[in-house]
Amino acid sequence: MLKTNFFKEDIGAIGYRLDPSVFLGSQKLPEVPFGIFLLIGRDFNGFHVRFRDIARGGIRLIKSTQDNYENNKATQFQENYGLAYTQKLKNKDITESGSKGTILLDLGKNHQGDYAFMQYIDTLLDLMLVADGVSSIYDAPEYLFFGPDENTAPLMDPACLFTKKKGYEQWKSITTGKSGHLGGIPHDTYGMTTRSVRQFAIGV
Fold it and tell me: Could you give the C-alpha distances from 189 to 7, 81, 104, 149, 203, in angstroms and in order?
């Protein structure tokens, strides 16, 4: 464990920055990530995985039913790793490498998605800013960048504004897919990622 906000008096969720080489042990994986974060909230479990110091990718909010919750819980990290690694391969020709985050809501807590997302962002900011009460043996400055994914596209503006309120200097760049007045290029308007097929059809 390289960082934690466990000892901070006022927290949204408990966060840990893990040492990837130790956390993954001898697992047979294509590549060991640069950074792994584990977050444990009142109504969710979260991960954030990135493959380079500077990396960007979406945050996925996972809602479950009685039928698929246990499977979602058992495979959350595997899915998160796979999504981040795929994003890394997609980003091979640009400066930013790939990352991905997942927020698995507890069973029966699907209505708490927006709140869990903001707790997730708040906790990562605690660790990035090394807030009062955060214990850290990781000395390098840390910058995380986020984007929209399943169930989080409308939350890019609130996340951006929250990071400004929290005192993060790079708040304008922390999320993609936000509104134009915040300096963003909305993904659903300009056809980025999966929405590009829809925008192409509209254009034709």
Answer: 42, 28, 27, 15, 12
